[in-house]
């Protein structure tokens, strides 16, 4: 398997990207193509005595995608950028997946342009996995589609359910529709129509639909797949990230207030470390762009080398899982109905 890595994308590129790729090559034994400015990539490899790491190759791409570039047009305007070249490798079948921490909008636009959607899929969706009570929950969509139709939300539910089955090993994932109330009649026309479609899909045995879920119930484990439009999903994702940072800071302030609280921290350090690990996004890696005909993983812009290594692991798992084939079969079947 070959993974194309955008070595120049992200706040900590190329250092974190290259180091993460080296660790991934050592741990997962797949070929990784580092795409970007060759001299800078080689500088990092040399600095870490990793110039001869088995499985690592370099493909020179001189240009960069800037966060200020227009996401919809930048890859056409900069065909020699690291992101465009990496996507083109996947398009031509010279790589099996792509991982990038660069511009989210550019990656999503480029993935749709270069790799195309799976036949039958109306829209691809960004789907991060978040911690929740008792395990993890997949949020779909978290920002790719700010405007949706009920049919999009139905397909998000189907694709999200397949992801949790194939990747996370949950036999019968609970699919919930994020809404402003749990009652069947709640929500605007989009949510009410989507509810009807998801309910019908549940009755037909395509998914395990558990109804509407409120935003507060998602972190409490009300469902395994939380379906929403990209606007609501992105707001929810950023809110949860903000609350997690606030809690971490507040807990630190409490335990560093005086000598007594510092001693108390030592007494419960193991529990606090376990609590902190629940919110460790480095262990997650990134978010898949589900619905595209090739594995596309969006790593967080601030990813360190551990996060990037795990984003590459995600790409490998996604490719091996048969997710793309399963989506094509299930979505086409439902579309035909």
Task: Jot down its keywords.
13 helices; 12 strands; 5-stranded mixed beta sheet; Isopropylmalate Dehydrogenase; alpha/beta; 337 residues; phosphate:acyl-[acyl carrier protein] acyltransferase activity
Q: How would you explain this protein's 3D organization?
A:
Belongs to the PlsX family. Pfam families: FA_synthesis. With 337 residues, the protein is α/β, with parallel strands linked by helices. The protein folds into two domains: 2-121 and 291-321, Isopropylmalate Dehydrogenase (3-Layer(aba) Sandwich); 126-279, Isopropylmalate Dehydrogenase (3-Layer(aba) Sandwich). 48% of the residues lie in helices and 17% in strands. The chain contains 13 helices and twelve strands. Strands 3-2-1-4-12-11-5 form a seven-stranded mixed β-sheet, sandwiched between helices. A five-stranded mixed β-sheet has the order 6-7-10-8-9. β11 and β12 form a beta hairpin. The longest helix has 26 residues, at 230-255.
């Amino acid at each position: 398997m070959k993974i194309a890595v955008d070595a120049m994308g992200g706040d900590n590129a190329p250092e974190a990207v290259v180091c993460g790729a080296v660790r991934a090559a050592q741990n997962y034994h797949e070929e990784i193509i580092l795409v970007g400015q060759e001299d800078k990539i080689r500088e990092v490899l040399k600095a870490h005595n990793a110039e001869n790491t088995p499985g690592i190759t370099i493909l020179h791409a001189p240009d960069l995608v800037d966060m200020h570039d227009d996401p919809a047009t930048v890859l056409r305007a900069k065909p020699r950028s690291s992101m465009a070249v990496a996507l083109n490798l996947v398009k031509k079948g010279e790589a099996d997946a792509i991982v990038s921490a660069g511009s989210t909008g550019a990656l999503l636009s480029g993935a749709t342009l270069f790799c195309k959607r799976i036949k039958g899929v109306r829209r691809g969706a960004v789907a991060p996995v978040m911690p929740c009570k008792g395990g993890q929950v997949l949020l779909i969509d978290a920002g790719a589609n700010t405007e949706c139709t009920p049919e999009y939300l139905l397909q998000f539910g189907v694709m999200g359910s397949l992801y949790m089955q194939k990747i996370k090993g949950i036999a019968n994932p609970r699919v919930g529709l994020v809404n402003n109330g749990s009652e069947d009649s709640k929500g605007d026309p989009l949510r009410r129509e989507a509810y009807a479609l998801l309910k019908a899909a549940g009755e037909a045995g395509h998914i395990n639909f558990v109804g509407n879920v409120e935003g507060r119930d998602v972190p409490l484990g009300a469902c395994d797949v939380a379906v929403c439009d990209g606007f609501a999903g992105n707001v929810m994702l950023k809110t949860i990230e903000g609350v997690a940072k606030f809690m971490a800071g507040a807990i630190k302030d409490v335990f560093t207030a005086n000598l007594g609280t510092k001693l108390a921290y030592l007494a419960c350090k193991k529990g606090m470390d376990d609590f902190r690990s629940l919110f460790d996004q480095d262990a997650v890696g990134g978010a898949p762009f589900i619905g595209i005909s090739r594995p596309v993983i969006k790593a967080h812009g601030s990813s360190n080398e551990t996060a990037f290594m795990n984003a590459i692991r995600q790409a490998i798992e996604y490719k091996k899982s048969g997710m793309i084939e399963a989506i094509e079969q299930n979505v086409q079947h439902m579309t035909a109905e």
